[in-house]
Amino acid sequence: MKRSNILFIDDQQSARDLFLRLLDPHKYKPIVAPGVVAAEEYLRHEAADVVVTDLRMPDVDGLQGLERLHLTDPDLPVVLITAFGTVETAVEAMKRGAFDYLRKPFDPAELEIVIDRAIAHRQLLRENKRLRSEVARRAASEDIICAAPAMSSVMDLIARVAPSDFSVLMLGESGTGKDVFAKRIHQLSERSKQSFVSINCSAIPEHLLESELFGHEKGAFSGASEAREGFFAEADGGTLFLDEIGDMSLALQPKLLRVLQNGEYYRVGSRRLAKTDVRLVCASNRAIEDLVDRGQFRQDLYYRINTVRIDLPPLRQRTEDIPALIEHFLVQLAAHHPRVPHTVSASAMALLLEYPWPGNVRELEHVIERASLVCDGDEIRPESLPRELRDKGNAAGVAAAAIDTPYKDARRSFEHGYFVQLMDRAGHNVQKAADLAGLHRSTLYEKLAALGVPYDHDA
Ligand SMILES: Nc1ncnc2c1ncn2[C@@H]1O[C@H](COP(=O)(O)OP(=O)(O)OP(=O)(O)O)[C@@H](O)[C@H]1O
Ligand SMILES: [Mg+2]
After folding, report:
1. pTM (predicted TM-score)
2. At residue 134, does pLDDT exceed 70?
3. For burial by CB atoms within 10 Å, which of 73, 81, 96, 375 has the most?
4. How far, in Å, from the CA of 389 to the mean position of ligand 2?
């Protein structure tokens, strides 16, 4: 069993020596510090499971010391040791988050009981945190792939913000999943039983967008032969998703602002106020701040829709998700097509991992779809991939891929792809691969091992 680190703070050498002798060395690893400053120094490098400290801390006042220890680690249980007459301060310290206190002189058995309770308490806190992140992960569910580290804070934010009524602004390059995540926010909200209405502001001609959003009366404009409810009425009680919000005209923006402020709007051609209760999620693939700076987007509306902002990272910053996304798309395709390849060859995968994906997940989806149609085996191989993926020497491709990557990572990723392909071409024969690459056999072995490229030991 792992021993728990117990940090003991006391300015007196004799007290520290006593503490070191008191604790069962099989269960605990005691560490001693003469004051709060020294303890903080220790905590900067090592973790403690529990802190036991004298209340009269030598260098820093007891309550302040408690606060400072919690600054380094808010979940750290702190047990105070109080002399006779300082019990009131101890009670005050408990109110401020101390875990417990012991009165001097204390009984070793009592000390152990308190320490064990503190350890159990800390484990519970950890478990709670783990469960919370588990909830966030589930919020993603199976049809959304998001295992990459770059996505975990996004999923966590989505899980936390979804149940509220806050307006969410989602920013991300084209194809990063803005539609997918907007829908997920709705599904995780209390409005999930009501409708989710999605409109793309750039797809609807400017002069029609107002009546689409707010509805219109019969005869409100030429062509309005019937009265119609708008999207705000349709989404009442649910969620309205306004995609490409940056394309909304300046003339329409104040009307949107008003409905967001008080839920009131007018149908086109009507003087009667209508009411609606919608939760708004907006998306854009352009930075709205820039539009605000250029006077193309109202600042007050920007503040209103931007209560919570979610930045979806481009696919090239979450390449860890690529294999899972491919598998996900292949499974989906297999449901509709009888002969869909099941896997991707190592060299094809290397190309897929290296490509900078300007069109993000949507582009990957199309590439896999096309490859699985043209591929005649059970495995997608490089020749089924489009030209731009295979042309790795392509300078623009390298520049785009390398743009967010430090040189040493970019080089490693290039080398990895190179050697995977090389081994493929050489039929996994190391000598043949060495000849093709113009390398010594031993150099090649070193490279393969360092990069984790599989090779056949006997070849
Ligand atoms: N994390 C994901 N897991 C599985 N599929 C995804 C994921 N993200 C996106 N997709 C798929 O990729 C495609 C593009 O996603 P989506 O339409 O949500 O992107 P978008 O950011 O709204 O793009 P645009 O800016 O062009 O509107 C969709 O088919 C979607 O199902
Ligand atoms: Mg979209």
Report:
1. 0.61
2. no
3. 81
4. 24
